[in-house]
Amino acid sequence: MKRLPVILAYIVLVLGGILMIFPFVWMILTSLKPFAELFNLEVLPREPTLENYRQVLTQTDFPRWFLNSLGIAGITTISVLFFDSLVGYTLAKLRFPGREIVFVLILATLMVPTEMLVIPWYVMSVGYGWVNSYWGILFPGLISAFGVFLMRQFFQSLPTELMDAGRIDGLSEFGVFWRVAFPLVRPALAALGIFTFLGNWNAFLWPLVIIQSPEMRTLPVGVALFSGEAATAWHLIMTASSLSVLPVLLVFLFFQKQIIEGVVLTGVKG
Amino acid sequence: MKPRFSLATREALWAFAFLAIPLLFFLFIRIYPAFQALWLSLFEWNADPAKRQYVGLEHYSRMLADPTLGRALRNTALYTFIGVPLQIALGLAIALLLQSVTRLRDLFRAIYFTPYITPAVAVAWVFSWMLSPNFGIVNEILGLFGIPAQKFLSSPSQALLTVTAIVVWQNLGFQIVLFLAGLESIPRTYYEAARIDGADGWAMFRYITLPLLNPVTVFSAVIGTIGFLQLFTQVVNLNFTDQGGPVNSTLTIALYIYQLAFKSFNLGYAAAVTVLLFGIILVITLVQLRILSRRVEY
Known about the structure:
The complex is a heterodimer of chains A (270) and B (298). Chain A is mainly α and 270 residues long.
């Protein structure tokens, strides 16, 4: 009698799983079809072709968009990891007047939605000539308040004796942070790093506002505007979509465990 | 006494040195712009700062009589009220199912989680292809069951629900992972004790699982609400050539702000709408934290 609910659970999970995977399968299958086969809706392509990939990769700025996204997400992630842990460490472990005020000030910025900041950022970028530049795309994300909050939590759990030992060994205050404390919060850094990278890789609103020329586009903006122009060339749209999804799927395949643990870490603790 | 004093000063100096750049960042990139948005909302926008005209609260009174804003507010409320409970209920249900099986749990979890990390832009285009009224695979499948073709994203009555379903599809994995972690943190002994007291499955769910999951549910509701209130990327890409959907049936506040600011360059009025959005998010978050995070005592 106890087996029946378990079998039912598996049936529901498998059906749900199909619902989760099918859009990806259909995207890739469509990307392998020539235009002529697009509208007959057979599941498998009769004459599978990589021509769509060749076309998207050679006739658009796709490789450039890919590199733009990689560079912007990469630089942002490094900056966030460094500054967020530095600030988190300072707020958790150093004593100085105004510590509470600084913490509350940073925390308060979490309440402000991006939409509210986008207009002043744009006005600011016009003023300083940052429109359509890499700096313009990435400056708003260089430090994250959420990351500061998260890193502070983790540094607080480190015993202060460790830092004192570093001081006795003659390390400077920066040395204590960089050589002693920083390496000890690796799980938190991994989680924060992965989410910062993904967040920037997928970011859409601000890049859409600040980018003007095709070669400056990030991947999501590139895919969106390319698809908008492609109209009914769904084989090419699905190819562009596949190309932007596949790197993420590959990363997920390799770092599945860290990514899911990261969600738990940031979600449940943060 | 002197060395101790200088040691404290030294520590404070280091702290300020560490904080210098980040504080400048938060002041100029996060805090100042928030106030600037308030300030801009009081002016009629002009690219030339000298020609910006002070209009006081005119933009705010204009909002009261703006039917498109009303539409965007109503849609955003619908997205949130349908989407958040739906994704919490489904996420919890699937997490419970996952907990009841022993084999392939990690595989299922990974499969359900995948959409969450994929770019929303790509997801939106894949769905708009699958849901295409004439050539979409979904209508083809519905046809196999004798269901007539639906218009989905191009129907004023279906578009909003379709967008909601797609967003929930994408968010579901996040909910599942959170709830699964929450479920695993509930001590087994509680259930064993309840079983000895003669509690049935529903009673255990109602009086043990739900109350102890409360922190996770609160977190998930708050994050989900903030996400739905700022819905933008999916709405833009799902109806790319008709942004806002048929008769603005999918228009959200965030998309309306974008259109006002960067299509019609009405930055002053757009800034006023962002202030409204800020107010809505602030109030709802505070209310949710208050209502949902009532402490559970045993």
